[in-house]
Amino acid sequence: MIEGEPSRTARRVAVLRAVHQIRETPKVLDDPLAVKIIGPDAEKKIRDNPKRYETMLDRPLRAALVSRARFAEEALAAAIGRGIGQMVVLGAGLDTFAYRSPLAPKVRVFEVDFPATQAWKRKRLAEAGIAQPPNLTFAPIDFTRDTLEAGLERAGVDLGRPVFFSWLGVTYYLERDTVLATFERIGRMPEGSEVVFDYSESVRGQSLPIRLVFRFLSWRVARMGEPWKSNFSPADIRTELGKRGFGEIEDLDADAINQRWFAGRADGLKMRGLVHFVRARVGR
User: Fold this and answer.
1) According to a count of CB atoms within 10 Å of the terminal CB, is the N or C end of the chain lower?
2) How many helices (DSSP H) and strands (DSSP E) are in the chain?
3) Quick one: average pLDDT of 138-154?
4) How far apart are CA 222 and CA 111, in angstroms?
5) How much is the pTM?
């Protein structure tokens, strides 16, 4: 993050979610607010130059963005069925879940983000005429100056009851120790708490095309001031989560994600690369 500025990658993610709503059918993620929240100028750019978003990089990236949100919302639906009533969105960006999902009124939602990014989002919401629902609380936290626990407690999260954490598109930008510290804190939550997150494997041993794509994307986000800093292996993730109190762990690679959400599509939209989606529950 750049001090005092909203996340540039959050902007990019929001635009690609909007592209999915405008360009692709059937929708993996049905998000009627995705276009509205990016604003009319950004929407016009999409409609005026749609081929700009059909590159060999943008299509699989877009597939990852919409399917990871779908993965999180399906996991949340199951968690609500088990009685969970609190949801924390870590690194919310321009995520629209709390404003449009029929699941949202069933939980208290806490959006956690870097203060400048959250202020920018609130400005975008006001400009788009999207109202803040009564069950949503904004929790601006600068992790260079505050802890997750202190920020959540200040926002009103009941740390004595199970919580569902949605942590999407964040681990890549954090040092390994910070990722593990977050696992540690969530792992100390009451049994039944759950986290959904995504991570990248290392490019070591991967094919040349995958290495080249990874290097280009890494270069691009670094130029935005938000470089990638960590990656994990599936075995590493299971070991580290297991050490920190997580019992049930689901880890989907690109093949499993494609089978679940992209099989049989006429437009060929699908995941590629090294990204995994994980759902992990506290308790044995």
Assistant:
1) C
2) 11, 7
3) 87
4) 25
5) 0.93
